[in-house]
Amino acid sequence: MLPGWIPRVRREQVVADLEGNVLRVLAFCGLDFDPACLEFYHTARGVNTPSAEQVRRPIYRDGIDRWQHYSKWLGPLRDGLGPLADT
């Protein structure tokens, strides 16, 4: 809807190249790089979200392609998304 306003971030690409994707998003936002961006899990601050466990460990590959277990039920969603489903 807003091309060029929101960077597309794909988990698979972040897992494959964390630093490259962090640099890309920071550049998009006009922010300087800080090494802490790559070691986000080394923080003492509190995290009060359902993902609190995830932010306490490095990026991991668990779950990549796990969606395929549910692909037989995703037909209506794919149809509704049209070409966006392939991106």
| Distance linking N and C termini | 14 Å
The chain-level structural class is: mainly alpha
Number of helices: 3
Give the total of beta strands: 0
Helix and strand element order: HHH
Name the beta content range: under 5%
Task: Tell me roughly what share of residues is in helical segments.
Answer: 25-40%
Average pLDDT for all residues: 85
Radius of gyration: 16 Å
The best one-word shape is globular
Q: Can you tell me the number of structural domains? A: 1
Low-confidence stretches: none
Largest β sheet strand count, sense and barrel closure: none
Word description of this protein:
With 87 residues, the chain is mainly α. It has one domain. It has helices at 11-16, 18-29, 75-81. The longest helix is centred in the N-terminal third of the chain and has 12 residues, at 18-29. It starts with 10 loop residues before the first helix and ends in a 6-residue tail after the last helix. The model has no long low-confidence stretch (mean pLDDT 85).
